[in-house]
Amino acid sequence: MKAWVWCFILGVVGATSAATSQAANLLSDWQPSSVVGPAKCQKCHKPQYRVWEDSPHNIGFLDEEFDSEEIAEKMGVSDPESSSALCSQCHFTRGAKLHGELATVSCESCHNPAKNWLETHGTYRDAAGKKVNKKEQEAPVQRQKRLAAADRAGMVRPGHAYRLAKNCLSCHLVPNQKLINQGGHPSKLAFELLSWSQGKQIRHNFSLGSHNPPVPKSRQRLLYVMGQMVQYELLLKMTQSATGKYAQVQKEKLQQTRNRLKQIQAKLGDPLVAKVLSATNAGQAAQAAKTFASKYSQGISSSTVDSLLPAANTYKN
Q: Which of 189, 256, 263 is nearest to 225 (CA)?
């Protein structure tokens, strides 16, 4: 059985250039030619790499209700592993080929192509600006400079709640209606940012050493709220001109997300949540969500939303 059949069900299998553009528009800064591959990350992030190696993002799983070959046939896709096929936008590292083969959903799928930021990200300096070998030897002022430079070069770090959420949801929400209306692609993928990112299948939080704990509670709150905000933004875009079953499914998701945001607003009382709810288009929702992510970049300290968070036993473990 071909490897792509086993790929993690992220959301897209297709063929036409128009369909590819529809997915790509959600992440317009993506450059496949700048992908370096997970092996480059492994050199400095061995524990994280081991988690990824055994994760659904890399090895995938076979869902008996998900017939990849049937979907490909209905979509008229003869080569799902082609970097130009819509399949590669989500079931692989978005169109990038390494050594002649498509990379699976890897580090750069979430953190963006690394060619322009990899060296900066991994170069530590002391207070005098001299290179040092260990991260622990890095001066705080140099760390801030390094992170800022990596940000400018396009890296999506774990602290970038908005951008990270958008990378995830741009695939998990199924951004092309032909996949559902014509191809019969699964339409009700119950993705939720906190429980999916902090489950043992995906979580790789080794910043404090060999232990891999869930992120702190303040960060958990932010991931939950940001996931709902970005989902609402993207669904506003996806429901425009939607038809058939796709329209029905995505509008149901939009209403469900709206209800969750209302619950969040009732608990948190932040005007930025209200701005997302009052948005009439994706651009307005995006602006409010980005501002919210910046405001709470260190996490949400208020425990008022805790009753809304998914229970730890529902995480993707």
A: 263
Distance CA 228, CA 236 (A): 12
Q: What is the sign of the dihedral through the CA atoms of 150, 289, 204 and 173?
A: negative
Give the tens place of pLDDT for each residue, 71-87: 888 988 887 777 666 77
Please name the residue that has the structure tokens 């990350």.
41
Specify the higher pLDDT residue, 28 or 43: 43
DSSP, res 304: G
**CA-based nearest residue to 249, from 159, 297, 189:** 189
Phi, psi at 206, each rounded to 5°: -105, 25
Specify the 3-state DSSP secondary structure of 102.
strand
Residue type, 275: K
CA nearest neighbour of 32 among 81, 97, 91, 90: 97
Q: CB of 90 within 8 A of CB of 11?
A: yes
Rounded CA-CA distance 98/103 in Å is 6
pLDDT value at residue 83: 62
pTM over 0.90: no
Q: Cα angle vertex 246, ends 32, 288, to 5°? A: 65
Q: Which of 5, 32, 193 is nearest to 91 (CA)?
A: 5
Instruction: Spell out where the chain has E strands.
Output: 97-98, 101-102, 124-125, 131-132
Instruction: For 147-177, write each residue's pLDDT tens digit.
Output: 999 999 999 998 999 999 999 999 899 888 9
Query: In the structure encoding, which two tokens stand for residue 279, read together?
Result: 């948005």
Spans of all domains in the chain: 3-116+154-314, 117-153
Q: Which residue has the higher pLDDT, 92 or 240?
A: 240
Phi (first) and psi of residue 14, to 5 degrees? -170, -175
3-state secondary structure of 29: coil
Rounded to whole angstroms, how far apart are CA atoms 280 and 267? Answer: 23
Q: How far apart are CA 121 and CA 11, in angstroms?
A: 30
The CB-side HSE value for 115 (13 A sphere, CA atoms) comes to 9
